Amino acid sequence: MAHNGTHKSDRRRFLKTGALAAAGSTLLGSPLAEATAPATKSIDVGPAGVPLRPFGKTGHKLPVLGMGGSAFVRIFNAAYGVPLLSFDERVAMVRKGYDGGIRYFDTARVYGESERIVGTALKDVRENCYIATKCHVADPKRTRETVEKSLDELGMDYVDCVQVHSPAIEAVGSDGAMKIHAELVKLRDEKLLRFIGLTTHVAFETVHKMIETDGFDQVLLAYGYMRRGMDTMLSNTNVEHRNLCMNAAHERGMAIVAMKIMGANMLSHNSKNMVADYDEARRKKLPGAAIRWVLQDPRVSMLNVGVSLPSDVEQNLATVRGDTTFTPADRELLADYATELYEAAPVKAMKIT
User: Fold this and answer.
1) How many whole angstroms from its chain centre is CA 57?
2) Higher pLDDT, 138 or 37
3) N or C, which terminus of the chain has less Cβ within 10 Å?
4) Given a cut of 60, is residue 25 above it in pLDDT?
5) 353 within domain boundaries
């Protein structure tokens, strides 16, 4: 893929500071990184031994591992490098997560059958769960329509949180997105939802402005060792804007939910398509190291990790129930893999934003 001179310069800066320094980059400049011990060292545990963290100003304390609903749907399946399970098998996988101690389930109106799968799996235990979905429409007048459709697909009378989805924020900017927020406030007053959030993979500067309005309870951010946005890689500048988002949200008592823990499967199933000849024994250790990297940041309230197979659920639960200390071996492994990953053709073809 051909790039102009500016893109090449950006990539050189990205690789220089990203591949080998990524393990500490998003903690730089944050006094919390050294002043506060990671919350996972607490003996405070929830269902099935999963550690708990306070979920911002919502008043909840939730198991730190959540389940993302985009990695087991038809529309995104090709990107995850595994076969798509049947509807019933995916329902069973979500229920397996619940039975294993997960209580936070994230889905979205644009994730196809995801809401229906989540709702079917959890209908008899709904009151024990925190369900978050997303409003992707750019036109505020359609907010009620899409929220009511989500409730219908989920089979629920309310959701715990509706988040202004990144595609809407990118389409209409902060001023337009705040008009969607105003409509969500009305629906909250009608008790169709309890909390209001916002999400982004890449629009961190815009989301920072929205956080500063003090109108939100939680924020979902792309925040993993690999600098993955949606279908892009994040520039150093955008990483700095992301850190501003995290600090501003933390200062306001918002719950901070991290997504893209696996870099959209760069560190999981799809790693074989990214770096085909990487040592298999080391490859299997990547997901656990990636989870522990995020858990070392005490600002993070929840890890929203997408799953495609029941074994993903088992592996993630085993990681958070175990010793979650981010070790020198973890750091070396991720840095070693990142050095090869950032030179791989699929990553070089990605735009840097």
Assistant:
1) 19
2) 138
3) N
4) no
5) no
Please report which confidence band the pLDDT of residue 301 belongs to, taking 50, 70 and 90 as the band edges.
very high
Q: How far apart are CA 45 and CA 90, in angstroms?
A: 27
Alpha helices by DSSP H, 190-235: 204-211
Please report, for residues 130, 131, 219, 341, the alpha-carbon distance to residue 211 in angstroms, rounded to integers and kept in the order given: 21, 21, 8, 33
User: Between these two residues, 232 and 30, which has the higher pLDDT value?
Assistant: 232
CA 254 to chain centroid, in Å, comes to 15
| Residue 283 φ/ψ, nearest 5 degrees | -60, -40
Reduce the DSSP state of residue 190 to 3 states and report it: coil
270 belongs to a structural domain = yes
Q: Give the SS3 label for residue 129.
A: coil
Name the residue range of residue 69's domain: 5-348
* Residue 324, domain member (yes or no): yes
The pLDDT confidence band at residue 299, using thresholds 50, 70 and 90, is very high
DSSP category for residue 337: H
197 vs 255: CA distance, rounded Å: 9
Q: Contact, 67 vs 96, CB < 8 A?
A: no
Helix H or strand E segment including 292: helix 286-295
Residue 95, number of CB atoms within 10 A of its CB: 18
Structure token digits, residue 277: 């000849």
pLDDT band at 125 (very low <50, low <70, confident <90, very high): very high
Looking from the CA of 231 toward its CB, the CA atoms found within 13 Å total 4
**Selection from 338, 197, 316 nearest residue 263 by Cα:** 338
**Amino acid making up residue 245:** C
Best CA proximity match to 289, nearest among 231, 198, 213, 225: 225
Half-sphere exposure of 52 (CA within 13 A, CB side): 14
**Which residues, 6 or more positions from 312, have their beta carbon under 8 angstroms from its beta carbon?**
71, 268, 305
Q: Tell me the CATH number at 186.
A: 3.20.20.100
Q: In terms of DSSP bridges, do strands 302-306 and 104-106 run parallel, antiparallel, or are they unpaired?
A: unpaired
Domain presence at residue 288: yes
Say what the pTM is.
0.88
Number of domains present in the structure of the chain: 1
